[in-house]
Design brief:
By secondary structure, this protein is an all-alpha fold. The protein has one domain. The protein is built from 3 helices and no strands.
């Protein structure tokens, strides 16, 4: 999933703004253009939210 797709999910209320911020943070940790890793995002959400 791309960050743009995650933003769209946030807009239609399938994910929260906090989850979107975590997704953005995960993407920024990697060099280059990368998709959001759903498994990693879920793990981060469970740890922090």
């Amino acid at each position: 999933m791309t960050l743009r797709a995650a933003e769209s999910l946030c807009i239609i209320r399938l994910i929260s703004a906090a989850e979107l911020n975590l997704a953005g943070g995960l993407v920024c940790e990697t060099v280059g253009v990368v998709p959001v890793n759903k498994k990693q995002l879920l793990e981060e959400c469970l740890k922090k939210l």
